[in-house]
Amino acid sequence: MHIAVKNKQFYNPLSVAVKKPDLNYLNEKYLNLSPEERLIEIYKDFDEILLTSSFGTTAVYQLYLFHKAGIKQTVHFIDTSYHFQETLDYKEKLTTLFDLNVVDIIPDKEQNEFSKLGELWRYDPDQCCHINKVEPFEKIRDQYEIWISGLMSWQSSHRENLNIFEEKRGVIKFYPILDVSEDEALRVIEENNLPIHPLKPLGYESIGCKHCTLKGKKRKGRWAQTVKTECGLHL
Question: Is 231 a catalytic residue?
Fold first, then answer.
């Protein structure tokens, strides 16, 4: 599904000097729409759209909404080379289930090898994330107007303060399921018999790279015993 943008009504009609979308207008417009309605509407407002998925524990909910709405959107996955095999298997399972076109984003080979030799995840996790996630992603990010991400407000204190739309580093980030409660997402997953991440029943509620992920509620198992709470993509 791709709807050509003809009249982008989110521009401020009072000033021809305004070239960027009005985030206040967008947040107000999308606030009372359902997540599925938001996904349909975004293709009326924008052309160049980027969708990423970590194929973590809540990924199936947002991917199901795309599938239900009949939206065929390429999914970008950042393959750090440090994922659990269970995550990679889950990715393949959802790719088949929803007939996804998944594009892997991979880090620079030499930098990735450097992170392994130096065990950066242990001694400098910020640098490890930058090399293997942030830097390779930034190489494609600027090609798009909108970046759709599956962040949800209940996942962390940082995320509970986000708006549906925000601008970060020159790109507009769109969180269509931000205000969906954990219970509501689980209800949709259960009612539609959607597969869950194989590590979730074992106590992993948020899953990233294997060296930096432990069992834990919400995101408490990520970078445990450090002050780090985000990889850097969403800060």
Answer: yes
